[in-house]
Structure formats: C-alpha cells, structure tokens
C-alpha cells in the first residue's frame, strides 16, 4: 500500500465497498508509466478534502486506471486550523519549509513578501511561484498520505497580514521575543493559528510593530536562532503536541 494518488473529483458516494472509481489525467499517467502500477496492485486515493479510499486496481492505462474500493474513511477538518505564513527566502529555504510543514500537518500556507526578503515574486514570477509552491505542497501531501490537501494562498504583503491578525491568532516567530511558544501554545478559542516566519534577515522592527498593533504576539523557540527553513516546522511540531494532534 505504498502508492497514494489525489483525485479531487472523488466524493463520498464513491466510497462504498465494491464501487469502481476512475483515476485519470496526470495522476494516472504517473501511476502507470512511472510507478508501474498494474492490475491487482493495491493503492490509496484521496480527494484532498478528507476522503481516503483503499482498493485494488482493475485496469491500468496511461489515460486512466480503475480501482475497486475495498474500504474508505473520512477525516474531519482540523479545528483550529494552523497556517504557515512563510516569508520568501533565497535558494530553496522557503520551499524546504513548506514541504516539511505539509508533511507535519499544516492546514494552509501563505507566501509572504517581507521587507527583508531577498527573493521577490514580481510580474510573471507571482503566478510561477504560486504554482511551484502548490506543486510542492501537493507532492508532500501525497508522500505523507494526507487526507487534507493544504491550500496555498495568494502572495501576501505585510499590510494584508495585519488585516488577518485582527481575526486570527497570529504568532510571530522572533528570536528576541520574551515569551516562549510553549507558554502560549494552548488554544484559547477556535480562531485559526497563523505562524509567521521571517526571511533570512528576520522580521523587520517596523513589521513587528505593525503586526503587534494589529493583534499578533511575538514568541520564540528557545535560546537558539533557527533558519527560516526550520523555524516553521519546529513551531508546528510544538503546536501539534499541544493541540493533541500527535
């Protein structure tokens, strides 16, 4: 049962044992031509919205494969949701962050154009960058066999984050903060939790001030300074334990 594929058109009606479902498009091509899936193999399907199916392959063609459903499960959406606000970073550090966060169960990702971000998404790069992040999140979800596919929001500015801070529980990961994440990790209500991670140079003083005035809270992850690629996943692990996800 090593193979897992996403077919967003799957619905609860497709989950009855004995039901035959079809996988087509890029997922079918990858399954048949790359993973060498053949009739008789067992694999899992998900729709990225909580539904997971397990079954036996009946037919396997590059255009489409069919699967007989053996069993199914539905996982409710997490409450509160945890979203990672990841600042754009040079190299592949931002991509490493969202890949690991997806494997660890993050519920959504927001790319952030921070003041100190060296990498910029401008013009055609905005759509290209968003597509790239969406692909990384999708593949990481498949690798970790996730019932829910995290969404990748449009590129956000600091002012747009300030608007979100008014309606969410926004936690700014800042090495100089006086409060530890473990001191404030326990939820006080059902508001979404937003973990905000700055770029290589950190969150600027002006950004910290603006977001704090909007309702965000500065927190730190101990006495060391983590890279932008590891801070978000580390914080997410703490929240997973505190919220009883793990």
UniProtKB/TrEMBL annotation:
Q: Which InterPro entries match?
A: Alpha/beta_knot_MTases, PUA-like_sf, RsmE, RsmE_MTase_dom, RsmE_PUA-like, tRNA_m1G_MTases_N
Q: Which UniProt keywords apply?
A: Cytoplasm, Methyltransferase, rRNA processing, S-adenosyl-L-methionine, Transferase
Boundaries of every Ribosomal RNA small subunit methyltransferase E PUA-like domain copy: 23-52
E.C. designation(s): 2.1.1.193
The protein's location, in the record's own words, is:
Cytoplasm
Catalytic reaction annotation: uridine(1498) in 16S rRNA + S-adenosyl-L-methionine = N(3)-methyluridine(1498) in 16S rRNA + S-adenosyl-L-homocysteine + H(+)
Q: Name one GO molecular function term.
A: rRNA (uridine-N3-)-methyltransferase activity
For whether the record's keyword set contains tRNA-binding, the answer is no
Q: Which GO terms describe its cellular component?
A: cytoplasm
Q: Locate the Ribosomal RNA small subunit methyltransferase E methyltransferase domain: which residues?
A: 80-239
Which GO biological process categories is it annotated with?
Answer: rRNA base methylation
CDD domains attached here? RsmE-like (cd18084)
Alphabetical list of Gene3D superfamilies matching this protein: 3.40.1280.10, Hypothetical PUA domain-like, domain 1 (2.40.240.20)
One Pfam annotation, family name?
PUA_4
User: Organism's domain of life?
Assistant: Bacteria
Q: What does this protein do?
A: Specifically methylates the N3 position of the uracil ring of uridine 1498 (m3U1498) in 16S rRNA. Acts on the fully assembled 30S ribosomal subunit.
Q: What family is this?
A: Belongs to the RNA methyltransferase RsmE family.
Name used for this protein in its record = Ribosomal RNA small subunit methyltransferase E
Which source organism does the UniProt entry give? Cryobacterium glaciale
């Amino acid at each position: 049962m090593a193979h897992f594929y996403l077919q967003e058109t799957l619905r609860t009606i497709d989950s009855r044992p004995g039901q035959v479902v079809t996988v087509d498009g890029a997922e079918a091509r990858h399954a048949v031509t790359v993973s060498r899936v053949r009739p008789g193999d067992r694999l899992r399907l998900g729709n990225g919205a909580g539904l997971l199916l397990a079954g036996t392959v009946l037919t396997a063609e590059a255009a489409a494969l069919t699967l007989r459903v053996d069993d199914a499960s539905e996982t409710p959406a997490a409450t509160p949701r945890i979203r990672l606000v990841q600042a754009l970073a040079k190299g592949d550090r931002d991509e490493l962050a969202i890949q690991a966060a997806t494997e660890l169960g993050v519920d959504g990702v927001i790319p952030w154009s921070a003041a100190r971000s060296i990498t910029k998404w401008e013009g055609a790069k905005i759509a290209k960058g968003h597509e790239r992040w969406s692909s990384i999140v999708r593949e990481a979800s498949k690798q970790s066999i996730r019932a829910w596919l995290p969404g990748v929001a449009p590129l956000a500015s600091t002012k747009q984050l300030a608007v979100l801070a008014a309606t969410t529980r926004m936690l700014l990961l800042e090495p100089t903060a006086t409060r530890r994440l473990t001191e404030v990790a326990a939820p006080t209500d059902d508001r979404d939790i937003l973990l905000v991670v700055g770029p290589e140079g950190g969150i600027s003083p002006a950004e910290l001030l603006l977001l704090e005035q909007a309702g965000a809270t500065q927190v730190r992850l101990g006495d060391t300074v983590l890279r932008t690629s590891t801070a978000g996943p580390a914080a997410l692990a703490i929240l997973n334990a505190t919220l009883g996800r793990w």
